[in-house]
Amino acid sequence: MQIDRYEFGLIVIEGQTFKNDVLIWPGRVKSDWWRKEAHLLQLDDVAEALAADPQVLVVGKGEPGKMQVDPALTAYLQDRGVELMACPTREACRVINGLRGKRRLAAALHLTC
C-alpha cells in the first residue's frame, strides 16, 4: 500500500483521501476506525488488522506522537513475533512506503495529535 501524502488530519493512500484515522492491512483500509481510548492503542483496536497475520505493525502516533501503545499490546505482539514500529505519523508513512512489497504489514495511523 502506497502512502502518497500525509499532513495533519489528512492522508492520501493510493490516490484516495482520508480525513479520519485509518487502520490498514493487506488489501484493506478501514477509514471509520477509532480506538476505545483516544490516545491509547490497545489490542482490541487493532485485532482486525492483526487477523491478517502481519509481520510488522506500524503505528503512527500522531503528528507530535501523543498516542501511546498499551504495554499489553506490545507484549502480545512480541509473543507472536510481530515487530512493532511506533513513531510519529509522518515517519510511520515513510516506514510503510519503505516496507511496501518487502514485508507483510498492518498499520494504525492517528492523523492528528
Helix-strand blueprint:
Blueprint: E1 3-7, E2 10-13, E3 16-18, E4 22-25, E5 28-30, E6 40-41, H1 43-50, E7 56-61, E8 68-69, H2 71-79, E9 83-87, H3 89-99, E10 105-110
Description:
By secondary structure, the protein is α/β, with parallel strands linked by helices. The protein has a single domain, classed as Hypothetical Protein Mth938, Chain: A (3-Layer(aba) Sandwich), CATH 3.40.1230. 25% of the residues lie in helices and 35% in strands. The chain has helices at residues 43-50, 71-79, 89-99, and strands spanning 3-7, 10-13, 16-18, 22-25, 28-30, 40-41, 56-61, 68-69, 83-87, 105-110. A hairpin with a 2-residue loop joins strand 2 (10-13) and strand 3 (16-18). It starts with a strand and ends with a strand.
Output the keywords:
alpha/beta, 25% helix, five-stranded mixed β-sheet, 113 residues, Hypothetical Protein Mth938, Chain: A, three-stranded antiparallel β-sheet, globular
Largest sheet: 5 strands, mixed
Low-confidence stretches: none
User: What is the class in the CATH system?
Assistant: Alpha Beta
Q: Helix and strand string, N-terminal first?
A: EEEEEEHEEHEHE
Task: Write the CATH fold name.
Answer: Hypothetical Protein Mth938, Chain: A
Counting structural domains, the number is 1
User: What is the distance, rounded to the nearest whole angstrom, between the alpha carbons of the first and last residues?
Assistant: 23 Å
Under CATH, the homologous superfamily reads MTH938-like
In helices, the fraction of residues equals 10-25%
Rg over CA atoms, rounded to whole Å, is 12 Å
Into which percentage range does the β-strand content fall? Answer: 35-45%
Order of the strands making up the biggest sheet:
5-4-10-7-9
The CATH architecture can be given as: 3-Layer(aba) Sandwich
Global shape? globular
Number of helices: 3
Estimated structural class:
alpha/beta
The whole-number mean of residue pLDDT values reads 97
- Strands, total number: 10
